[in-house]
TrEMBL record:
Record-stated family: Belongs to the major facilitator superfamily. Proton-dependent oligopeptide transporter (POT/PTR) (TC 2.A.17) family.
GO molecular function: dipeptide transmembrane transporter activity; tripeptide transmembrane transporter activity
Transmembrane segments: 84-103, 110-131, 196-215, 221-241, 336-358, 378-398, 418-439, 459-486, 498-523, 543-562
GO cellular component: membrane
Subcellular compartments: Membrane
Keywords of this entry: Membrane, Phosphoprotein, Transmembrane, Transmembrane helix
SUPFAM superfamilies: MFS general substrate transporter
CDD domains associated with the record: MFS_NPF5
Pfam families: PTR2 (PF00854)
InterPro entries, sorted: MFS_trans_sf (IPR036259), NRT1/PTR (IPR044739), POT_fam (IPR000109), PTR2_symporter_CS (IPR018456)
Record's protein name: Major facilitator superfamily (MFS) profile domain-containing protein
Lineage: superkingdom: Eukaryota
Membrane topology, as annotated: Multi-pass membrane protein
């Protein structure tokens, strides 16, 4: 008996040497666990993320200042342009993620999009240094930039936007792919990956809004553009050097086609009676699964289940057209996407609050006293450092203190489930808007008392609390959204999962612009607009109170939607019925 046990353990040990999650190594072969993936590969990926985020935040956080100072745009026009650019930047990943998952693969997509990103940075540099592309002549006062500079500048930042569209979803999902969910240790590492990924993101953010913004303010914008370009080239080389250590997922074609097949098959069988036993639904035999994971049957959206009814029980299901017969796994993947829609919608108001940090919050900083002694003046965008600090602190506390404690209390491997984490972070967005409204009211009162000095009697550190609180919220909600969308989408849509998370911020940016336009129109009709030509003639405090009220109402909507959500459940062998519960993602092993 002992000999049998030794042989079984030996076979299991030999099996665990290799990674069986449908990934391959750089030679296209089964990956060896000890030499590929895990943190040894993820660190190369995190390195390029840090440098890319340095460039992105160095541009994004100062964009409203560039548009108002160099382009001489009005505040509301500049804020609208920043929101449009942010919206495109965070919606483009839907296209980039689709291409990565369907055709090019994540590694190749990262390389291609990095080249597009680099082209944008080079063009941005040229728009500052080439005499024919400069914003103005060096001869005198400039009140309006050249048209050619505007065209080249916007072309450059939108090239960066398109580059981000492929880079961001592919790189983050590629990093998460380095951890095997069926291996206990690597699964736990993967739960920490998104936390530390965002710490690396914050490192790039801090450098972008301190060192880079200081160079923009005290040397010129072009010098910062040169730094962006050099760092991007260097990080791309580092990323390529990590190639032998990566685990790759082979693209399997459009993930949208199987979903359309489920809809067609379920509609064509809509009149068939619903089976009394879920085991009657069709699933592909394990011998033909090619290491792919099966999903459990669930009792929601039952009308889609009819797509998996095998009409002629004597015939082989694998020989039938996928437009007539879908597997249980394909049906459940369709359910996952449908169930995500209410979650996606109910997180947009949080994104609208986040969108204010890169526009009105930064512009507020320009009106406050930024001196901290010895003539040193803090660049307005550098206050973003406080937000990054809040995010790092909240992520560290959550990962190292809260999760271990909550695991013992709740018996949940994550501590609390993902949606609870997201909802908790939403409380901070409400608090941010309330604090921002109170600070802005105090600033306006200072202007009323002394119109000459205005709000220069107030320190820029009055803005620190609102940045710190939204940073705490980001550590819970934004990191939670990344993990949620990556984890809950079908395995073939992991890049699109990250794109769904980014699209929350993108949609929120567009809606923020629309909200500004609507509020501006309505308040102008009733008297004085909340958005004047500058901050002193605006009433941003009222706008912040409006956002606080919207976020509070939305939190109740999110709690309702989250309470009815069913998490993705995976089984290892054959199809089984999975009853609904409130647990997080689970792997259900069925005995045969």
């Amino acid at each position: 008996m002992k000999k049998v046990n030794v042989e079984v353990k030996g076979e299991e040990s030999e099996e665990m040497k290799w990674v069986h999650d449908s990934s391959v190594d750089h030679r296209g072969q089964l990956p060896l666990r000890t030499s590929t993936g895990s943190w040894k590969a993820a660190l190369f990926i995190i390195a390029i993320e840090t440098s890319e985020r340095l460039s992105f935040f160095g541009i994004a956080t100062s964009l409203v200042l560039y548009l108002t100072k160099v382009m001489h745009q009005e505040l509301k026009t500049a804020a609208r342009n920043v929101n449009y650019w942010s919206g495109v930047t965070t919606l483009m990943p839907l296209f980039g993620g689709f291409i990565a998952d369907s055709y090019m693969g994540r590694y190749t997509t990262v390389l291609a999009s990095s080249i597009v990103y680099l082209m944008g940075l080079i063009l941005l540099t040229l728009s500052w240094f080439l005499p024919s592309l400069k914003p103005c002549d060096d001869t005198g006062l400039c009140t309006k930039p050249r048209r050619i500079h505007e065209v080249v500048f916007f072309l450059a930042i939108y090239l960066i936007s398109f580059g981000t569209g492929g880079h961001k979803p592919s790189l983050e999902s590629f990093g998460a792919d380095q951890f095997d969910e069926d291996h206990d240790e690597e699964r736990r590492q993967k739960m920490s990956f998104f936390n530390w990924w965002n710490c690396a993101l914050c490192t790039g953010l801090v450098l972008g809004v301190t060192l880079i913004v200081y160079i923009q303010d005290n040397i010129n914008w072009g010098a910062a553009d040169i730094i962006f370009t050099v760092i991007m080239v260097f990080s791309l080389i580092v990323f390529i050097l990590g190639r032998p250590f990566y685990r790759y997922r082979v693209p399997t074609g459009s993930p949208l086609t199987p979903m359309l097949q489920v809809l067609v098959a379920s509609f064509s069988k809509r009149k068939l009676p619903y089976p009394s036993d879920p085991a009657q639904f069709y699933e592909v035999p394990k011998s033909l699964s090619n290491n792919k994971r099966f999903l459990c049957h669930t009792n929601k959206l039952k009308f889609l289940d009819k797509a998996a009814i095998l009409v002629n029980e004597g015939s082989l299901g694998e020989k039938q057209s996928p437009w007539n017969l879908a597997t249980v796994t394909k049906v459940e993947e369709m359910k996952l996407i449908i169930n995500m829609i209410p979650i996606w919608v109910s997180t947009i108001p949080f994104g609208i609050c986040v969108a204010q940090t890169a526009t009105f919050f930064v512009k507020q900083g320009t009106t406050l006293n930024r001196n901290i002694g010895n003539g040193f003046e803090i660049p307005p965008a550098s206050i973003f450092t406080v937000s990054a600090l809040g995010m790092v602190v909240s992520v560290a506390i959550y990962d190292k203190i809260l999760v271990p404690v909550l695991r013992r209390v709740t018996q949940n491997e994550r501590g609390i489930n993902i949606l609870q984490r997201i909802g908790f972070g939403m409380l901070f967005s409400i608090a941010t808007m309330i604090v921002a409204a109170l600070v802005e009211r105090k600033r306006l009162e200072a202007v009323e008392r002394d119109p000459l000095k205005g709000s220069l009697t107030m320190s820029i550190f009055w803005l620190a609390p609102q940045f710190l609180i939204i940073g705490f919220g980001d550590g819970f909600t934004l990191v939670g959204l990344q993990e949620y969308f990556y984890d809950q989408v079908p395995d073939s849509m992991r890049s699109l999962g990250i794109a769904f998370y980014l699209s929350v911020i993108g949609a929120a940016s567009f809606l923020s612009s629309m909200l500004i336009t609507i509020v501006d129109h309505l308040t102008k009709k009733s008297g004085e607009s909340w958005f004047g030509k500058d901050l002193n003639s605006s009433r941003l405090d009222k706008f912040y109170w409006l956002l606080a009220a919207m976020s509070t109402l939305n939190l109740f909507l999110f709690a309702f939607v989250a309470s009815r959500y069913s998490y993705k459940r995976v089984q290892k062998v054959v199809v089984a019925d999975c009853y609904e519960d409130k647990s997080d993602y689970e792997s259900v092993e069925t005995k045969v």
